[in-house]
Amino acid sequence: MSWIISLVILIALLAYALFNFFSQRRAVKPLSQEEFIEGYRKAQLFDVREPNEYEGGHILGARNIPLTQIKTRLTELRKDKPIYLYCQNSMRSGKAAQILRKKGYTDIYQLKGGFKQWTGKIRTGK
Q1: 87-126, pLDDT tens digit by residue?
Q2: 4 an active-site residue?
Q3: Residue in 28, 48, 65, 87 annotated catalytic
Q4: Residues 36, 114 contacting (CB under 8 angstroms)
């Protein structure tokens, strides 16, 4: 009997993971570093990591809006300009994109592989 419960839980977790994966794919377009560099200067660039991570190093020109604050800071984002997001490894930026998509933002991109893969110019501190 307990193996049935375990199987149901495993199936539920798998279903949730698949739903989340496909939901993120609909919400955001991942870009290589080269593609990201081509477009981010004409867009809104947001680092969705926490402030201490941002201050440790961020892409030149990025503004810090942590994922934990994105719902309360939507007024800082424009719907008429593309939004470029990144985090440490693409997980949080994917979640941020899902939130933004639900709020009516449509032109959303993320840095594939996140900041840990970035080899371009960075700035430390605020």
Answers
A1: 999 899 999 999 999 999 999 999 999 999 999 989 987 6
A2: no
A3: 87
A4: no
